[in-house]
């Protein structure tokens, strides 16, 4: 059933005036934006239940009404401690405005020690993570023993947390931090004598933060999303904010300390993996985080910088490093495949086809030199070489399903780029290889006893993993029957109240707790596989559990690197609680609920095909394209029909609807508004 009408290009004058009046009001989606209003951020509250020792006007740090006075006459007095809460996870350099200080009885300026943390459960007298805790490297290690130190001068001045030491190797600070809470104490390390002492008086007139991420205020959004469910809508913006925290200029003094500082990245805009750590851009993470970037902000340059830099470090055998860490020598087996899928995303979302002029041969070498050398010619499956890991350093040597499924996805994406780039022979060769690997995969890895793909085949291996099954579906290895059986298996054997675990119970043989661990990163692929298989209810259910759980926990808003048993932070204090690879909610809602995908580079051709549940009544949004904004809105009426309005930019064409969901396919041109009823 289908109806088609074209709205008049010439709107009545009265309607236009009404529209202009509305346009001046704040669009409703802007209420969900999480960015601070400006580059200097102030704390929201003092956690008074943590306040100890002699402190006057603690609230002054929030109200600004009075100077806060820390006094500790001698080091035997209780340490004055105060905890400020920024109200949400933030990133940058702390600023302390000192209104004066007086020395105590022992020699030296009164000391201030700072301990940072993203979540209150890991707030202690040392930071939840400091770069100093990690190995010597580039930049060279400094020793902070877990806190940042200040020797407060006897005058009025503003101190900014900078990486380095105030004196030769003493009174040291880590510089940038990703955190929500800061514990401020009047104290000093004994190793900082005689410059700083644990006594005296320190007056502080304000605490602030110099924001180091991308300041994603409402005016910076190039794409947006809103739907009838305010929780889903909010999590779309939470994903954007999480990524904004790590969208930054690559700088030597705040990067991952294990030899990640690279001259070819310095000064460039990048997407760091996390705000707190590792602070290095990884190519696998871009499979999700670049999409969040393309769909929300004009920051595609960051993805390009990473793709180009890693391509420039391609090894003679075709392998591409996952990131700059350990001088580009961290050996991951899966990440070169993401370089290919991310190249496809870059070209299709931004339309920068000249990228292929400089990078086509890089792709050719990955696919035709590196992976064939690591293929088991009997099964056609990839074999992970010794000494190589993957996105989570999983102890699964040999032919894990995930590697070959991702390989097929990359071969198909590469074939699509080759087709576009006028290289039909390469496209045909890669498609043929994808078909052969798919056949080998189905023959070797299908576990008919449970109707899902094995994680890998070996004596005693009984695990089934989220990554291998989800990617087998997205890569087209599974047909509709095996796909829905595998998804049903995952739903029945991995569902937790905080998401779907990345392994079934068989995974606990690899490492205890795997069947209770949730990666929002890999969950992105399962949710996408569910939408592609028209299981919108299953996708929305796991989205609500995964992102809803993180939203309901401290620090709130930002998306975690991993979730452990019973919904905990999977690596305790070390867990990054703002990690771009976990922002899949943003591309999932735009791609499947709003329903917009590019089918030619730069959206010169596109599809709009919402896959919805009956509890989402409407959605509105904009997808940025190089031709201009692509606007979509739809409502579901009581009989479940979808009334879809699309206003695509001139110079583009697309189709609305999909015969697969019971609708028809309507071909339309951009430049005018089209209304279609589907269902
Ligand atoms: C202190 O108060 C905060 C909220 O104000 C609460 O979340 C936290 O659990 C309390 N901590 C302690 C140690 O009492
Ligand atoms: C700190 O502020 C208090 C209250 O304004 C004032 O009495 C005291 O002299 C100040 N101390 C220093 C060292 O400036
Ligand atoms: C406080 O201690 C510092 C460091 O020892 C010293 O340089 C400074 O002169 C002292 N201030 C006063 C007012 O004595
Ligand atoms: C850290 O790097 C930034 C950018 O290069 C620079 O502006 C800042 O001064 C540096 N800070 C330190 C302590 O080197
Ligand atoms: C949205 O979240 C709140 C609190 O997290 C919850 O109480 C409410 O039921 C949720 N709404 C929907 C539609 O799921
Ligand atoms: C497009 O890609 C090329 C090659 O990678 C790059 O040099 C160029 O700056 C990119 N153009 C834009 C507008 O980003
Ligand atoms: C599989 O065959 C390819 C191409 O014929 C060859 O390059 C590769 O070394 C073989 N793989 C193994 C593991 O022997
Ligand atoms: C799907 O694949 C399975 C396994 O190869 C096969 O047995 C089945 O016939 C296929 N179903 C369809 C509808 O093609
Ligand atoms: C799991 O968390 C719930 C609250 O979310 C708690 O009641 C329960 O005791 C926890 N179980 C374990 C094994 O930690
Ligand atoms: C839903 O929309 C269809 C198509 O416009 C229309 O035929 C039908 O009457 C509508 N149903 C309701 C309950 O509004």
Describe, in plain words, how this protein is organized in 3D.
The protein is α+β, with helices and mostly antiparallel strands. It has 3 domains: 2-32 and 595-678, Sandwich (Maltose phosphorylase, domain 3); 40-211, Jelly Rolls, CATH 2.60.120.260; 228-594, Glycosyltransferase. It is 29% helix and 22% strand. The strands form 7 sheets. Strands 2, 3, 4, 5, 6, 7, 8, 9, 12, 13 and 14 form an 11-stranded mixed beta sheet that branches. A 6-stranded antiparallel beta sheet has the order 1-29-26-25-24-15. One 2-acetamido-2-deoxy-beta-D-glucopyranose (NAG) binds at residues 47, 49, 120.
How is the secondary structure organized here?
Layout: E1 3-6, H1 13-24, E2 40-41, E3 45-46, E4 54-56, H2 60-63, E5 68-72, E6 81-103, E7 109-117, E8 148-151, E9 157-160, E10 164-167, E11 170-173, E12 177-186, E13 196-197, E14 200-211, E15 224-227, H3 230-246, E16 247-249, E17 269-271, H4 286-294, H5 300-312, H6 325-328, H7 335-350, H8 354-370, H9 401-420, H10 424-445, E18 446-447, E19 452-453, H11 466-474, H12 480-494, E20 495-496, E21 499-500, H13 520-532, H14 536-552, H15 585-594, E22 596-598, E23 605-608, E24 618-625, E25 628-636, E26 642-647, E27 653-656, E28 666-669, E29 673-678
Parallel strand pairs: 7-13, 23-27
Antiparallel strand pairs: 1-29, 2-14, 3-6, 4-5, 5-14, 6-9, 6-12, 6-14, 7-8, 7-12, 10-11, 15-24, 16-17, 18-19, 20-21, 22-23, 24-25, 25-26, 26-29, 27-28
Bound molecules: 2-acetamido-2-deoxy-beta-D-glucopyranose (NAG) (10 copies).
Protein name: Alpha-L-rhamnosidase
GO molecular function, one term: catalytic activity
Organism: Xylaria flabelliformis
């Amino acid at each position: 059933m289908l109806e088609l009408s074209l709205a008049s290009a010439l709107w009545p004058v009265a309607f236009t005036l009404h529209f202009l009046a509305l346009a001046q009001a704040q669009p409703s989606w802007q209420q969900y934006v999480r960015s601070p209003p400006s580059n200097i951020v102030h704390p929201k509250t003092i956690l008074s239940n943590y306040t100890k020792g002699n402190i006057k006007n603690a609230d002054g740090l929030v109200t600004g009404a009075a100077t806060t006075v820390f006094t500790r006459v001698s080091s035997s007095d209780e340490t004055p401690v105060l905890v400020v809460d920024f109200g949400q996870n933030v990133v940058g350099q702390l600023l302390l405005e000192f209104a004066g200080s007086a020395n105590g009885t022992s020699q030296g300026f009164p000391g201030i020690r700072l301990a940072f943390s993203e979540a209150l459960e890991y707030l202690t007298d040392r930071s939840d993570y400091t770069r100093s805790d990690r190995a010597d490297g580039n930049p060279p290690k400094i020793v902070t023993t877990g806190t940042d130190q200040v020797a407060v001068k006897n005058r009025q001045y503003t101190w900014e947390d900078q990486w380095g030491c105030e004196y030769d190797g003493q009174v040291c600070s880590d510089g940038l931090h990703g955190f929500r809470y800061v514990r401020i104490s009047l104290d000093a390390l004994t190793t900082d004598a005689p410059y700083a002492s644990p006594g005296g008086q320190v007056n502080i007139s304000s605490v602030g933060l110099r924001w180091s991420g991308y300041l994603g205020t409402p005016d910076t959004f190039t794409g947006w999303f809103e739907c009838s469910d305010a929780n889903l809508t909010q999590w779309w913006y939470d994903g954007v904010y999480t990524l904004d925290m790590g969208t930054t200029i690559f700088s030597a003094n705040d990067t991952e300390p294990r030899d990640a500082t690279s001259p070819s990245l310095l000064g460039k805009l990048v997407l760091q993996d996390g705000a707190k750590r590792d602070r290095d851009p990884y190519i696998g993470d871009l499979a999700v985080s670049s999409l969040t970037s393309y769909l929300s902000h004009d920051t595609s340059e960051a993805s390009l910088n990473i793709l180009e830099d890693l391509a420039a470090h391609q090894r003679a055998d075709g392998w591409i490093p996952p990131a700059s860490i350990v001088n580009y020598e961290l050996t991951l087996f899966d990440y070169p495949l993401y370089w290919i899928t991310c190249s496809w995303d870059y070209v299709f979302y931004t339309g920068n086809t000249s990228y292929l002029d400089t990078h086509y041969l890089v792709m050719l070498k990955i696919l035709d030199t590196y992976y064939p050398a690591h293929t088991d010619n009997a099964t056609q499956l990839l074999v992970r070489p010794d000494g190589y890991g993957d996105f989570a350093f999983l102890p699964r040597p040999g032919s894990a399903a995930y590697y070959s499924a991702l390989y097929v996805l990359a071969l198909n994406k590469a074939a699509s780029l080759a087709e576009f780039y006028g290289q039909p022979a390469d496209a045909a060769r890669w498609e043929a290889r994808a078909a052969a690997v798919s056949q080998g995969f189905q023959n070797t890895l299908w576990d008919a006893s449970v109707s899902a793909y094995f994680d890998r085949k070996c004596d005693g291996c009984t695990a089934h993993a989220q990554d291998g099954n989800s990617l087998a579906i997205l890569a087209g290895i599974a047909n509709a029957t095996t796909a829905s059986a595998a998804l049903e298996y995952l739903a029945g054997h991995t569902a937790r109240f905080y998401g779907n675990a990345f392994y079934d119970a068989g995974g606990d043989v690899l490492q205890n707790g795997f069947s209770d661990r949730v990666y929002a990163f890999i969950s992105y692929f399962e949710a996408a596989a569910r939408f592609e298989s028209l299981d919108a209810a299953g996708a929305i259910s796991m989205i609500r559990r995964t992102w809803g759980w993180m939203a309901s926990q401290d620090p709130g808003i930002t998306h975690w690197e991993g979730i452990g048993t019973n919904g905990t932070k999977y690596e305790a204090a070390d867990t990054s609680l703002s990690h771009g690879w976990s922002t899949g909610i943003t591309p999932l809602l735009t791609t499947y609920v709003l329903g917009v995908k590019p089918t030619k580079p730069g959206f010169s051709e596109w599809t709009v095909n919402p896959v919805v549940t009956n509890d989402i009544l409407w959605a509105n949004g904009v997808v940025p394209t190089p031709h201009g904004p692509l606007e979509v809105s739809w409502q579901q009426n009581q009989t479940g029909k979808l009334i879809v309005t699309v206003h695509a930019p001139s110079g583009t064409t697309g189709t609305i609807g999909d015969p697969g969901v019971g609708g028809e396919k309507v071909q339309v041109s951009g430049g005018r508004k089209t209304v279609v009823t589907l269902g």
